[in-house]
Amino acid sequence: MAVDTRYGAFVSLTEIFEIENLGKIDINSPEYRDFLVRLREILNNQAMILNIKDTGIYDPEEFVCGQIWFPDPTLGSSSAKKPTERQVFRKVVKLLLLKDILMY
Known about the structure:
The chain is α+β, with helices and mostly antiparallel strands and 104 residues long.
C-alpha cells in the first residue's frame, strides 16, 4: 500500500508474500485468485502513485513534470471546447546576468 503523507506520494517499499507458499498454491484455488487480486491491487496502487508524483528534473529541455494546472477558466459548459486540466511543462533558463544586476 502507498504511504499517505501530507508531503508527497510514496510507494511502500515492502509487500509481504510468503514466497515458500506461492509455489505450492494450486492455480485453480481461491487462494491463488486472492493472490492475483492482491498483486493487481498493489500494482494498481503503485501506478496511481507514480502517475501523480512531481518529477524533480530541472533540465534545459522542455519536460512534462507531472503537475497539472486547473482548467482554462475561459472555457465552460457552453463553449465549443471542453475545459480540461492542463499539463505543466518545466524548462530551466540560466539567468547569469541577474546576479550582476542584483548586486547594484
